[in-house]
Amino acid sequence: MISASVYVDGALGCAFSLNAPMLIGFRFLLGVSVGTASFVAPLYISEVSPPKVRGGLVHELTLTGDDRMRVAGALQTLQSGRMRPV
Asked: Which of 10, 17, 25, 66 could form a disulfide with 30, with the two C-beta atoms 3.0–4.6 Å apart?
């Protein structure tokens, strides 16, 4: 919940920032929040799930995260109309 509230604060700060340093600060705050969520979610799943399915659930979370990044990249490519160098 703390990470989610920090994420909301960072998003609102980015939306209403008045200058570049303010935007950079709020982008940093968003990065901290996303980084925290990326290690807290698998940790939580591994702690509350039964041992029989624990590995599969954490693995599934990792795979869906990869799929979301692929979809975001594809949408960006379609929107811009060109490929970015990797």
From this structure: 10
